[in-house]
Amino acid sequence: MLKPQEYYYLYSPSRLDPVELIRYTFQSLCLQGFLSIHVEYVLVSPRDTKKRKRYYFRLNEMQNSSSLLTAEKVIIGLFEDSKELRVYQVNNRLKQLLGEDPYNFKVYVWKDIQPKGYFWLGSILSKKGRAAKKECAGAIDTFEASFDALLQNEEKLLVAINELGTNLIFLDAKTLSRLKKFTKEHLLNPETERENKVGRLESIHVLKTIVVGDFSVPIPLRKRGNAFRKYY
Questions:
Q1: Kind plus residue range of the DSSP H or E element containing 212
Q2: Per-residue pLDDT tens for 141-186?
Q3: What pairing do the DSSP bridges indicate for beta strands 84-86 and 217-218?
Q4: Host H or E run for residue 58
Q5: Which of 28, 60, 143, 176 could bridge across to 171 with cysteines, CB 3.0–4.6 Å?
Q6: How far apart are the first and last CA of the chain?
Q7: CA–CA separation, 94 vs 22, rounded Å?
């Protein structure tokens, strides 16, 4: 199934927001477990009496990096000389990579999509591309529609989560919040952590407070009100 940045690209290659591509790539990497986010409270200066919150991106050990797409490898490359970066450091490195134009990131996503035959003449969605987009949209809608029933069957829920993959980030806010709560209470064992992917939902929630690049755009969860996925 398509990854989030691919799905968004197929939606509208001529009108897409490049910062959205960056958002979805970061979110996908967090949900796959390649990146994580953690918070530290620090004293900025010796005169401070109150600690300030600081967010960090951390590069985790990669056991299955063969699944990474070109755009994801580009983001991972930002951590080449450091396994942990402050948000402003990520911003600076993205700016060095993309220059003043975030549209340059579009090239990396195109490198992942172009060989798959999703476009005709470079900009017209092919039959194969329309089918891939419809499959992804249908999987998201089916998950949401059957969510109450899935909560009654843990095994079926885990199968559905695996099938949806990193496109979990496109679930409407209410479903995603309920899924996060359910997994904390029922699925995650502190010793075995039976479903690692679900445990990473925490990072996806934290991402909505982070700013990527010098573009001052927060990284929110995609809410149903903006659900471009409906357009097959």
A1: strand 211-212
A2: 999 999 999 989 888 888 888 888 888 888 888 888 888 777 767 6
A3: unpaired
A4: strand 52-59
A5: 176
A6: 15
A7: 10
Rounded to whole angstroms, the Cα distance separating 44 from 227 reads: 40
**What crossing angle do the helices spanning 106-113 and 70-77 adopt, rounded to 10°?**
140
Sign of CA dihedral 174, 215, 76, 1: positive
Domain that holds residue 70: 4-230
- Total number of domains in the chain: 1
Enter the pTM of the model: 0.77
Between CA 44 and CA 51 the distance in angstroms is: 7
Q: Which of 116, 120, 146 has the alpha carbon at shortest distance from 132?
A: 116
pLDDT digits (tens, 9 = 90+) for 127-147: 999 999 999 999 999 999 999
Task: Identify the CA nearest to 145 among candidates 178, 175, 183.
Answer: 175
